[in-house]
Amino acid sequence: MATDTNGATTGKNVVEYDVLIVGGGFSGVSAAYHLQSTCPGIKFRILESRKNMGGTWDLFDYPGLRSDSDMYTFGFSFRPWASQSQSIIGTKQTILDYLHTVVKEFDLQKHVQFQCQVQNADWDSQQGNWTLTTLQKQNNDDSTTTVTYRARYLFSCTGYYDYEEGHTPEFPNRDAFQGPIIHPQHWPKDLDYKDKKIVVIGSGATAVTLIPSLTEGANAASHVTMLQRSPTYMANRPSRMTIVPRSLLYWFGQDAARWFYILLGMFMYYICQAFPRALSEFFIDGVEHQIGSDKFKEDDWTPRYKPWDQRLCACPDGDFFKTIKSGKASVVTDHIVEFTEKGVQTEKNNVLPADIIITATGLQIRFFGGIKITLDQMPLDMPSRFIYKGFMMNEVPNFFVAGGYTNASWTLKIDLTMKAASDLIKIMETKLYRYCQPELPKPGNEMEAVPSIDLTSGYIQRSKNLIPRQSTLYPWRLYQNYLYDRYSLQFKSLEDDTLKFYK
User: Fold this and answer.
1) Which one of 93, 99, 279, 293 has the lowest number of neighbouring Cβ atoms within 10 Å?
2) Is residue 223 helix, strand or coil?
3) Counted domains in the chain
4) Is 330 annotated as a binding residue?
5) Which residues bind FAD (predicted)?
6) pTM as predicted
7) What DSSP character marks residue 175?
């Protein structure tokens, strides 16, 4: 056996670390930072399937791609977002620049194995470790070799959707359409849409982001139609800091500005939950005010659900509303009958003319990056498991899951759970435990099972029977509350009655 540059024990196509992190996006970087800070000297490796770090932000490349959360909460707690322009909305490039700055500042890139696709992960109870089978690309060619990794601890930081394919429904007569049909997840770099008529199918965050960008600049489309089955709640929000957070930033620094946006987001969520009818009217009236009564049709802007039953679509500086008001884009609420040679036939309208059709129809849920996970060679039945404190699963040893909030920035929750996982590893290393796992109550004290994600969004509903569940009480409930999670993960002892430690 030999030792590699990161101190790992190596053999013939077998590499051993203390910790393996699967995924090199925001979650993986957070896990790596907290491990490095909390457990100095621990040997870890980030296994990233792509050529670059960044995850979602490296994958997607459609026009106008930006954050739908403010960057003061989307940025890491240990490295606050800083913008000379006081912008709070990050573009793809500024987000990647920020992430790469963090990686460089904390010297994390030396821990990354790029183009390493994890195929299987198996827990061996006898050895007390995880064994991962991977396919690694060699140099710049397409040849691959199988490499086996072993580690006591495993972090899944792969996100929650399929990087290979987005969700596209079966559209009748699809082949009849003569132009390109594009899903935003696979945006062609050389797409020419200048002076073209475009139909965007969908009304979620992707469509709301795309449409203003498609109608601007030298390459602008002649007209864009947003075709939706039902409306989404949308709201104007400033893209730059307003006077209150700007003053807090000036007098008290980055942390004060970050806390302002944390509390503002929590306030908006809970007021929507407490007064859904009033907030529904507020958002709908806001749209009419933005686009003008002549462009406003109530059926196009009145969702069928309560505010925050699905994520709210933010429109920085009202850019989407300005595009509708200008006449460069329009909204049609209808159902698709079929594609035709020249566009999309709907039930209530004539054919919507199109040179290009964009299917902004959502994501395909794929937890753990499609990795086959087994426990002593027995497949892990994901839907039968419960999520513990948002970062572990019952009876799955030394396995940590990165999952963010549905009602706030992804990174807020990631920062808390990855720090908690690192603290847990420090406890185990100090007290010489071999593994730990949360365990369900004994028979006779069965818990109520409820879906782990309580949104009504299509991509969640399509996959609710494929993902782990939650219950109704702590520590098996996902509270979607940053203050509560901060207290329970950072100030309460991690050594509770539910988490069992084994030597």
Assistant:
1) 293
2) strand
3) 2
4) no
5) 27
6) 0.93
7) G
